[in-house]
Design brief:
homodimer; alpha/beta; 8-stranded parallel β-sheet
Chain lengths: ~250, ~250
């Protein structure tokens, strides 16, 4: 390995500060779909993740690893804890989930999702929840389609970063409207995380080339034959896209 | 950097043997567009290249670094030498160029190109040149559009690998017809190199995901603000696509 490659792997500055903690990794990995804590550990290490995203299912209807399952398997102290509201189907559920995550685990950084019946982002409900949670002092990462008005609104509400949907969750379609994504990214000053429908390393590199600060991947890794191998591949793809932008 | 990432960077087996020498790197870099030997050295090191592609311009009408310019700048002994006929506009010119490269430099491995007036591959002339050069015992890497019949024909002629055009040279359009590319790759048993119109790391990862064994990039690196940085980015992209395929 030559010197510039090693430098590129190690000299990565934080792109987000949240409650005195810094997020440096540009590959974010969801862990809602895992049943095995040991696999979660392997995937997070392969991704070089520094964010550990936990959830709290108000309804307890779906299986998901919770913090209590994980902390026996490996040392989570080296991760920044974030909470997700990915099971929420209303603004009210999202707000309640975030407050539970703060009360139980001291979590202040929220991956804010409100999904509609088709598992797509419920934009209006997401904005409503963001208004409420911003007032409570949460650091918010809301998930919406690449819509300029909504993105700007959420930025104005003080959200720390905006998560823009590439294509429907689990679709593997990649960035279905690169022009809309680009327009959205260009008008924002906060970091953008591209997420949803990422189906290959090429999609991850594409996201970075469009100006994403980070990419969040869930299903592609969780359902891979070798999840840790896929996480490593996506980490290369993040580096490839990022360095390509800086070199072009 | 975790262990699996380091393993992936170093444990790469050769994908082509030519005259007792092995080609291991899956990122091939053309150097026809460079005027500075020192920049060539930096780019080839960043790409982790093991193939050094030189040309011989029969007409001497275009500037190009020749072996004589290069061997003062750095040690080319660690590279496998290949010759290119990229200036050829007829089968006859390609054959003559290849023979000159063998006579002058002992080169037996030929990146076979015959271009038409629009700088697109002249398929019929390429096949004619391949027939002639295969008879002479050259190891051939011909360049054609992703056409199944022609690719099969060239494989039957004994070509060592087939270079399939992603999109017109210098266009930055990436793989304009992924389905045609996939059909072509699936029916071949020899390695496929995807080349032409590669415009970003995402395109390189995409090529690997479609089943390419290697990717050849020229203009994107040569015209980058930081050619060595771009070469490093593309190397990551190759690794990302390749590992993604093996992990999915």
């Amino acid at each position: 390995m030559n010197t510039s490659m090693r430098d590129c792997l190690t000299d990565v500055k934080p792109w987000l500060m949240a409650g005195g903690q810094s997020i440096r990794s540009r590959l974010l990995v969801g862990i809602e779909q895992y049943a095995d804590p040991e696999l979660v550990r392997a995937v997070l290490e392969a991704a070089d993740a520094d964010l550990f995203i936990i959830t709290y299912d108000l309804q307890n209807t779906r299986s998901s690893l919770l913090l209590s399952d994980i902390d026996q398997a490996f040392d989570i102290d080296k991760y920044v804890l974030a909470g997700t509201t990915s099971f929420a189907v209303s603004a009210d559920m999202a707000v309640k989930t975030a407050r539970q995550l703060r009360d139980r685990f001291g979590i202040n950084l929220i991956k804010l999702d409100v999904r509609d019946a088709a598992n797509m982002p419920d934009t209006a409900a997401t904005v409503d929840a963001a208004i409420e949670l911003a007032r409570d002092g949460f650091v918010l990462l809301p998930f919406i389609p690449p819509d300029r008005q909504t993105a700007r609104r959420l930025e104005d509400l003080g959200c720390a970063a905006i998560r823009l949907m590439a294509s429907p969750v689990g679709s593997y379609l990649g960035i279905s409207d690169p022009d809309a994504m680009l327009r959205c990214i260009e008008q924002l000053t906060v970091p953008v995380i591209i997420e949803g429908g990422i189906g290959s390393p090429a999609h991850v590199a594409h996201a970075m080339e469009l100006g994403a600060t980070a990419v969040l991947v869930n299903t592609l890794i969780a359902r891979a034959a070798d999840p840790a191998g896929m996480a490593t591949a996506l980490r290369y793809a993040v580096l490839a896209g990022d360095l390509g932008v800086r070199s072009r």
